[in-house]
């Protein structure tokens, strides 16, 4: 696994990166995914949201956060008075990693080596956008930025320092809301997620 660095063009724009990622052979995830799913949003975005990886619908459509978790994120952004078109959305890993279960493709968490291999794409996106606030959605994104010892449960919603932005903040991935089966607990988790996004707005 060589990593993506050799495929990231120097001094790129977002459109150039979006085209270049399609040719990346930095890890083996490309062999099974439908396509690379690059980030989406304006270069001038002040808020930069990072998830784990594309899901099944993202893999098929080619855009981040357009599946069930994306719909939860859309609702939460609206509740936090954040215009989705004003933020930049991306994932740590650009290809969908999954296992086949009959006719379904179920999400499988990427390995540390795969996350590291894809890291140059994420760093290139950040360098182009230059956000003020980074929001890590879930443990994979948070650990990609802050190391494997980082725990979202311990530092959720807290302003953090990171070299890529003025501030960073970690919260749950919106898919965690979907996985919460109890209706009351799910509502509480969603409300807290919205509160975390509102905290990110205050850091701008």
What does the model show?
The chain has 204 residues and is α/β, with parallel strands linked by helices. It has helices spanning 14-20, 56-61, 68-79, 112-129, 139-146, 152-155, 175-179, 183-202, and strands at 47-51, 88-91, 98-101, 104-107, 133-137, 160-162, 165-171. The strands form 2 sheets. It has a 5-stranded mixed β-sheet, with helices on both faces. Strands 3-4 form a two-stranded antiparallel ribbon. Helix 3 (68-79) packs across helix 8. The longest helix is centred in the C-terminal third of the chain and has 20 residues, at 183-202. The mean pLDDT is 96.
Can you summarize this structure?
The chain is an alpha/beta fold. The chain is built from eight helices and seven strands.
Features:
204 residues, alpha/beta, five-stranded mixed β-sheet, 7 strands, 39% helix
Summed up, the helix count is 8
Number of strands: 7
Provide the helix percentage: 25-40%
Rg calculated over all Cα atoms: 16 Å
Spans of 5+ residues with little confidence (pLDDT < 50)? none
**What gross morphology would you assign?**
globular
Average pLDDT figure = 96
Largest sheet: 5 strands, mixed
Structural class: alpha/beta
Measure the end-to-end span: 37 Å
Series of secondary-structure elements, N-terminal to C-terminal: HEHHEEEHEHHEEHH
Strand order of the largest sheet: 2-1-5-7-6
Strand content: 15-25%
């Amino acid at each position: 696994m060589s990593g993506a660095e050799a495929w990231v063009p120097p001094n790129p724009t977002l459109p150039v990166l979006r085209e270049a990622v399609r040719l990346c052979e930095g890890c083996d995830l490309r062999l099974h995914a439908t396509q690379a799913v690059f980030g989406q949003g304006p270069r001038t975005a002040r808020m930069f949201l990072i998830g784990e990886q594309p899901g099944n619908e993202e893999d098929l459509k080619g855009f981040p956060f357009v599946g069930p978790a994306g719909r939860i994120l859309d609702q939460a952004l609206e509740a936090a008075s954040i215009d989705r078109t004003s933020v930049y959305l991306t994932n740590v890993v650009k290809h969908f990693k999954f296992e086949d279960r009959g006719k379904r493709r179920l999400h499988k968490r990427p390995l540390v080596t795969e996350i590291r291999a894809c890291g140059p794409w994420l760093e290139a996106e950040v360098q182009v956008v230059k956000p003020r606030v980074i929001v890590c959605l879930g443990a994979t994104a948070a650990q990609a930025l802050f190391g494997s010892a980082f725990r979202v449960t311990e530092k959720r919603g807290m302003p953090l320092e990171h070299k890529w932005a003025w501030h960073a903040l970690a919260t749950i991935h919106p898919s965690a809301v979907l996985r919460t089966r109890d209706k009351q607990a799910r509502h509480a988790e969603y409300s807290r997620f919205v509160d975390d996004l509102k905290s990110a707005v205050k850091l701008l």
